Amino acid sequence: MDSAEDSSSESTPPNCCEIMDKDLHVTFLEMMYHLLPSPYESQEINHLTLAYFVISGLDILNALHRVEKDAVANWVLSFQVHPGTKADLNNGQFYGFHGSRTSQFPPDENGVLLHNNSHLASTYCALAILKIVGYKLSNLDSESMLTSMRNLQQPDGSFMPIHTGGETDLRFVYCAAAICFMLDNWSGMDKEKAMDYILHCQSYDGGFGLVPGAESHGGATYCAIASLRLMGFIEDNILSSCASSSLIDVPLLLDWILQRQGNDGGFQGRRNKPSDTCYAFWIGAVLRILGGCNFVDNKALRGFLLACQYQQIPWRVSRPVPLLLWICCFQPVGRIWLEFTLF
């Protein structure tokens, strides 16, 4: 295992350019909107999530006019699962959104849905897309969605992503909180239980693991802090208030967060790991919520991100995760962080 010193002592990569090439990113996202390259075939089950990245990226770049919003909304709505009757809401299933056509099975000849593969993450992405393109979420049957979502919350406050089972960790607590927040209705979860679960995930070093007792991780820490913020248990700029009165150990969290920036300017997700563009969002967004953006070297971070920018459209994608998609696709704080560091 590499030492922490080795992982943070890498020389700063040379900048490929001094500014972010917005037009290039718009062209890339437009290409993804019309046709996903073959390396994405293995991710077909996450089609709705990939669409969310694309639509979010175009929106942030003020290029949402490049897509047909009504067509996008209708496409997303076609993945929604509806209960046959109100009694179905008590059958233990979740009535949200499928993630792709391959997970969407037609009902039988009697109209009974035999295979409901609604997924919490897909539902989060679906609602986010609809909100971005201007669809009124009040038109949705949110009551069925939220009532059945309670079937996914576990006794310890965590959530599993699908009623047939799966991991239970902070990722899905965040998805549930974001769904309730976007629908402006918190009947879909027990916030107190979710908060208790989140607090048990804070590690000895200040960060948060995906589950209680797990290693601190940048993505898990974002899910924890963003969930607490969405649920109203903490406020923005918490560093400006009395940290001792907070639910979480803010000084210890800030110390862990600040140690994630390496000498190359980028953020790492865990100790002894290289910097990665995705953590500009996961770590940066936590700093934005805490009110601690000024504690990091933003110039170095900007340089790291720009050094990771493609200089031409990667028509043959070996690792299909463009810079913009990871930085800013999960909450408005991502947009603010992007503008703060790049534009």
User: Quaternary arrangement of the chains shown?
Assistant: single chain
Helix and strand pattern: HHHHHHHHHHHHHH
Please tell me the overall pLDDT.
83
Give the termini separation. Answer: 37 Å
Which structural class fits the helix and strand makeup?
A: mainly alpha
What is the tally of helical segments? 14
- Main β-sheet description: none
Helix content class: 40-55%
The percent range for strand residues is under 5%
Shape: globular
Uncertain segments of ≥5 residues (pLDDT<50)? 1-16, 315-343
Radius of gyration: 20 Å
Number of β-strand runs: 0
Describe the structure.
The protein is an all-alpha fold. The chain contains 14 helices and no strands. It has helices spanning 4-8, 22-34, 47-60, 69-77, 120-132, 142-149, 170-183, 191-199, 218-230, 250-258, 278-290, 298-307, 323-328, 332-341. It is globular, with a radius of gyration of 20 Å.
What is this structure, in a nutshell?
With 343 residues, this protein is mainly α. The chain is built from 14 helices and no strands. The longest helix is centred in the first third of the chain and has 14 residues, at 47-60.
